[in-house]
Amino acid sequence: MEEREPLLRVRNLKKHFDKSRGLFKREKRILTAVDDISFDIYKGETFGLVGESGCGKSTTGRTIVKLYKPTAGQIIFDGVDLASVPEKDMLPYRRKIQMIFQDPYASLNARMTVTDIIAEGIDTHKIFDDQEDPKQAKQKRIYELLESVGLKKEHANRYPHEFSGGQRQRIGIARALAVDPDLIICDEPISALDVSIQAQVVNMLEDFQKERGLTYLFIAHDLSMVKYISDRIGVMYIGKMMEIAPSDALYERPLHPYTKALLSSIPLPDPEHEDKGKRIVLEGDVVSPINPKDRCRFATRCNYSKVLIEKIEGQFVKALTDKYARETLLDPNTHELIVKENQLITEAIANRIEESGVKEFHINRAKCFTEAPELIEYEKDHFVACHFTEEIDKNTL
Ligand SMILES: Nc1ncnc2c1ncn2[C@@H]1O[C@H](COP(=O)(O)OP(=O)(O)OP(=O)(O)O)[C@@H](O)[C@H]1O
Ligand code: SF4
Ligand SMILES: [Mg+2]
Hints:
The protein is an alpha+beta fold and 397 residues long.
């Protein structure tokens, strides 16, 4: 097997924001935007990062480039832990890791011309200072870059507001490429663009990757977007990494319940897979990333975090007490409330349920609600954070 060399190794990375309010901040409110995530990105690959809005994708990208100071963890780039590099020594790394931002309207300075925007990095990193005529070399580079992203020389002296969203994103790409980076963090570079433009921009990024041996961290909302571009994909949910696998494996055999749900919502154009395409509807509340409890963050929505309790021959087959009700239970005869969702089932309540005509109901699987699962390598290259991966994989849960 070919040796893969990691360009970036993220280890136990945390980025927390203190949201405590009030003068004395009596109640600490910590927003765990990124909470102890680890992953590698290999040289020359595209690592896709997906998850719903607010799960921490942009914060991950911004913390890697140290736009945000990491709360904890390591960001090992080419063997150096950037988390412990002091700000004053960050400049060379800032050149090597570039970012293309989510919003092409907000990410370009409205008062700068295209030339100034692209030249900024070239100047900061003194890229042509050793040339005989640095000014001319810089201008030549800017024209070349504009051309390579599908813009024209004439655009060089215009301002961002004179461009469409797609063109602005091209300017953002030219700005990133100008300093000859190794890694580009593409933060949803196409989601603000018209569908007709999206493919063009993706193709362009892929061409640059081949030509320049670039490595990408490609952030996107949904899996359909990253499927074709990514070699491997990481799935995030409320600050946690839930699954990491090579793209094919993730699509063919998703193991985490959240990934399964995400995938089921993508329409499959392939008739061979049509039977697979049963849509999984996620119910239940999304938990808050503020002061999260010790539990799986997906537990409130997971289809596997509940156990079906059935009455067989007049008796419930599993012991009921000291478990949390998954659903509200009414006595079918009296319509009286026996137990509310999330209520602890005591012995007295268990007896009431036994006596009532209720035939089946769900309780919460305790481990899902009391312990946060670690991300573990379930199979070679396939990482999953779930207490019941094996059972789900073997269909025995
Ligand atoms: N600078 C900040 N200060 C405080 N909270 C922040 C900051 N940046 C992000 N957050 C919070 O961190 C969480 C993750 O936000 P983030 O922008 O990383 O999500 P995202 O996955 O990129 O979402 P989207 O798909 O909408 O871009 C959110 O709850 C957000 O409100
Ligand atoms: S640990 Fe429990 S709640 Fe979390 S994904 Fe696995 S089965 Fe679902
Ligand atoms: Mg974002």
